[in-house]
Amino acid sequence: MDNKVKTKKKTIKVFINSIKILDFVLNSSKYNGPKSVNRDHFYFNISGADKVEVSSNSIFILTAIEIFFHKKNSKSIPIEICKIKTEIDFRYENLSKIIKIKNKKVQLPQDLIQKMLNTSFSTTRGILFTKLLGTIFEKIYVPPIEPSSMV
Q1: Is 0.90 surpassed by the pTM of this model?
Q2: CA gap 45, 51 in Å, rounded
Q3: Which of 17, 113, 137, 144 has a CA-to-CA distance to 42 between 20 and 30 Å?
Q4: How many CB atoms are located within 10 Å of the residue 68 CB?
Q5: Beta-carbon contacts of residue 15 (< 8 Å; ≥ 6 apart)
Q6: pLDDT tens digit string along 84-94?
Q7: What digits encode the pLDDT tens for the residues 35-58?
Q8: How far apart are CA 93 and CA 13, in angstroms?
Q9: Which residues, 6 or more positions from 44, have their beta carbon under 8 angstroms from its beta carbon?
């Protein structure tokens, strides 16, 4: 499905070429907490990165979400309960129209990166939600993410 993306200066067509789960681990056996999960005892490490392939008109967004269990005011070590890594390939009609190459480094418009990160984190959040369905952790929702704080 084609879509048009507007950056501050240009409008170009873009579509998602592929969505890949690079890694998924659920360590439910490490959790020794109560049967009813208290969401306040879980926190998230969330990160994202981009990789540009000008020759294929692609920008790949890599996302990682880790979920840790840790009781507040506890001296125990946080336990990694789950982690997921994804890669989403955004294919552009003509990527060279929106990028700049400076000192052999590709520069992308900030608003474009934010849009791709937002889409990627929403997609990864949905994948994680489906992976956790039927487990004790199914009510542990990844919070909304503001990509502008990461760029």
Answers
A1: no
A2: 20
A3: 113
A4: 16
A5: 1, 2, 3, 90, 91
A6: 999 999 999 88
A7: 777 777 888 999 999 999 988 999
A8: 5
A9: 65, 66, 67, 68, 142, 143
**Predicted local distance difference test score (pLDDT) of residue 22:** 98
Query: Rounded to whole angstroms, how far apart are CA atoms 49 and 126?
Result: 19
Contact indicator for 52, 108 with CB cutoff of 8 Å: yes
- Token pair, residue 62, equals 């890599």
- pLDDT digit string, tens, across residues 108-120: 888 888 889 999 9
Q: In b/e form, how buried is each residue of 81-119, taking b as 16+ CB within 10 angstroms?
A: bbbbbbbbbbbbeebeebbeeeeeeeebbeebbbbbbbb
